[in-house]
Amino acid sequence: MTTALNENNVPSHTLATGLGGMGLPPVRVTAPFTAVVFGATGDLTARKLVPALFRLWKGGFFTAPFAVLGVGRRDKDDARFRADLRDAAHSLAGVEVAADWDRFAGSVYYHRADFSAAEGYADLARRLGEVEAGSGNPGNRLYYLATDPDHFPSIVEQLAGAGLLTPAAGQPWTRVVVEKPFGRDLASALTLDRHLRRFLGEEQIFRIDHYLGKETVQNLLAFRFGNGIFEPLFNRRYIDHIQITMAEVDGMTGRRGAWYDRTGALRDVVQNHLLQLLALVAMEPPASLGADDVRAEKVKVLRSLVPLRDADVPRRVIRGQYGPMLIDGQDHRGFRDEEGVAVNSATETFVALRAEVDNWRWAGVPFLLRAGKRLPRRVTEVAVEFKRAPTGLFTAPVRGGGLCDRGCDCGATCECCNAGVQPNTLAFRIQPDEGISLSFAAKRPGMRLALGPVRMEFGYAESFDKPVPEAYERLLLDAIRGDPTLFLRSDEVTAAWEFVTPILEAWERQPAPPFPNYAAGSWGPVEADRLLSGCEREWHQSP
Description:
The protein has 543 residues and is α/β, with parallel strands linked by helices. It has helices at 43-58, 78-90, 98-105, 118-135, 152-161, 186-199, 215-225, 256-282, 291-303, 313-316, 415-418, 460-463, 471-481, 490-509; strands spanning 33-38, 66-72, 108-112, 141-145, 174-178, 205-207, 239-247, 317-320, 322-323, 325-327, 330-332, 350-356, 366-372, 379-386, 425-431, 435-443, 451-459, 518-519.
């Protein structure tokens, strides 16, 4: 297997991995390994995991023999599995197949097994032995649990029973990647964690949140702690509030409706994605970019969140569910009309909440989190809203006339004259089109002193002449290398559930709002606007 090198003897497709890899030469996997993917016939495997492994191989990050063994319950052989994966990869933008794919696919295999049957794991052990003998692998294994969470405990227990889990300190190495959700509430998360820890050490468990593999998410730390002009501003003295938004245009696709009806937006994205973003934007500088130091600072933030109890929840948490709407001449179904969803479902497809971090840096600064389905735009971003300049200099009338340059005699009180003195906003755009923007006021061209808003924009696609790696590429490579920096530690998961579970419990005791309470294609329930009380402006909308 060869890879084109540039003038620096580095593969043309490169990425720095893990926070510790920022700015350093790319790292590679130098020892043989086998990636064993449970749930091999699912969408996650076909659209994310195997394409990510293919790109890593093509980029030269696997310098030793490797194998990918898919484990599923459907009746397939190696040839059928490879063909299905090739068809899925061929349909994805940015994945080039043809001859490269055929060479990669020679290391891809399939094994049919029932996840809960012990005899299936005895057969898996024999198949692994055959695959590893062909690649010279002494037994280094990454198990990826891309299954329904209900299967996590039994898969790990059966692997241990079949002798397929190496002890934490042993050689060869064994690591297990666990997909979200990690539990449904605090009690179930603790139960799952105790079960996994019966068979695995903490350093063997890689709890994945794919948002942590995105470039702009990691750039939160690079931007804050790598730039002397910005870090001093991240505190209660200069920041009015911080908004974190995850908006999705899609509703329920395929058979997702039944699963989502049991889950809801709070469990699906707030407990993990949004709280992780909050922790990264609010954390103190870590002692180093090592895994333990970075994750310890995130835990401190999560443990500093002010708990929301019964009386707080109606005031600080807004939930919604989308209803039907006619958009661009097409009827869009409401959530209760989606396949697999109960006709009287009380599951939230939108949630907005106002959180506070009770520590020295952030006391009194609202953190406004918002996530929802069927919203007008697909966007995930962190918007840091700074306090207004403490002067009326540019809004007070001056002697001899107002500040307006548009011919009105308003004394600088109309919207056109005040548009230029909006609060400064620093926005980290995570998807789509990853980048960072800063808005500020500048003088409009003309004979009078009137201000207008302008933006400075940084985009990865325009600023760097190399592709942005997919989140799963970075995370899979780190898991194979044993770098847990971008994965969740047990106490991180616990701290997040400690904040979210009281909200879920309060909802169980309180009647749900009259669902649906927002139309598909809108920005959610109007009640979410009252969470902005006391803040400088409205919900942030990126251009």
